[in-house]
Design brief:
mainly alpha, 226 residues, 73% helix
Length: 226
Amino acid sequence: MSDVLTCWDLLRGAADGVAAERERFCLTYGPVIRDFLGRRWNRRALAQEIEDAEQETLIECLREKGALERAVDADLGSFRGFLFGVTMNVARRFEERRARIAGREAAPRTGDPPPVEPDADPEKDFDRAWATGVVRRARQQLEARAAEQGEASLRRCEILRLRFFEDLPIRKIASKLGQDPARVHHEYARVRSDFRDALHSVVRFEAPGGEVDLDTEVRFLLANLE
């Protein structure tokens, strides 16, 4: 079993064909790719091709002499920008293919939306997809640890879910859980600190070597959540 301490350990292993790390790569970054494509093609004809485009992007990354090998050889500081570039290249191929098909068919009906909005901001959409993925992974890490620690930790995770992710006020959470509001507020402060630590852990994984300020990156991620 290999030691995967940073994203670059994961990328090297996946590029070298290590099965466990190729699978982890897909599980880690596949949702980011899918989320980005969903934002770009939402409610348009290409929306039905999101799954195929996600798979094509992963194949582009994992094939022999593919994107991952190039990324590892280039010794990049951040994989986020590189993955954005690969995903955009695949997205444009799908969009160009769709445009060619549309050109061979009857003229579209008046009012049909274009494949992509003229003012679409792909970098912003990808930042949001990336931030969503990092927060999801931090939450999974926190909940896995809580499952090992017992009922009290799981209850704090539920408070986090209701307050941070569902945006319910503390008093409503307290009523829902049958607990004193002051107690819920104390537990939320504790789990929020644990969640920040989990976010720092994921950020360190993605940017090894102290290349980013952890708190600055966390603020960037949270600002990009919707």
